[in-house]
Amino acid sequence: MNIGKGLYVLSAPYAVPLYPNGSNILYCCIPVIDKSMHIYGAGVDETIIQLAPNQRNLSRLVAMMIIRGSGPLSPGYSDFTVANLTLDGNRAQQKDDQPQDGEALILAGSKRSNGKYYRLKLVNSHGSGIYLGNNGSGRERDAVVFSVVAQNCGAEGFMLDTCHNSHVLDCAAWHCREGLCLHGNNDWKSRSKDQVSATKFQTDSQITVWQVNDFTLSEINMDCTPATDAYGLVVRDGTGQVRRSVLKNDKAKTDSTGGATYIYESSRVLFDDCQLEGFFGIHAVGRSHVEAKNCRLVAPGGCFCTTDPNPVQSTIIAENCVWSGKKVVLQAGAAFLEVECVEEQTTPA
């Protein structure tokens, strides 16, 4: 399906229930139900699909494009593409209450595979930009999202919810509540490896990894300095690695909202060749286990920190790292081990 150049202003008349009992209804402009499909525009900012005014309110939630199977056990697509266009949620012309689960410009559900989303601009969403969800019969496998920009989203720019072998490449999120969320669920210990990743991702908002058992973040550029209530890179019950990335937050915020990271519960994370700057550098609490290799950390509140109001049993192991600010803030019950770490030397002016 090819959509030519132009501005297309669409209402959202189609009601799609997300739950098997027919509840959790979202309204949409473009329903793609029980089929694989390929949708191409003429280019970003050439083909613009915009939500008409007054379509969304708290009792009438909207996802502009819904892609899924029709029934609770029906499969979704086996091959799907959306590319070369702009989706505009026209947020200023809606009743913009707090975003609700599932609201997005693109929402995918049901058991499905081989989704490709590329060269897209996703702007002014009351919810997420793109939400690859697990509503319906199962989760996404083998999805690729690349060369996509999300901007001014009330929730996440990019949400991958219980996806498997799925990847975000060369994307960016600006002025969203969260830039990227890789989300799992509480069977993270027992299910097969998730194998999800983000590479060359840029954002000025928080990144969250939640109960994902095999993730890789590489060449990430996250700077939360201008954001409100952002905790940097947040990992809960996640197992994975962060490589060749720059993670920054506001060093003037003297609590966790100024930290470059916040790692908690039973997470196990490796940072390799990363730059971390914030009030805290690596902030590991709960029962988390963090290793930092070949990293540079700048943090006046603690480059390696384990403080929390609750009891902690966390461990941080640092190897060949360079630090500046306060080196270690250790709470009782936690452990810090280091190998060949040095303080950064500043050259007098």
Automatic annotation (TrEMBL):
Q: What organism is the protein native to?
A: hydrocarbon metagenome
Name listed for the protein in its UniProt record:
Right handed beta helix domain-containing protein
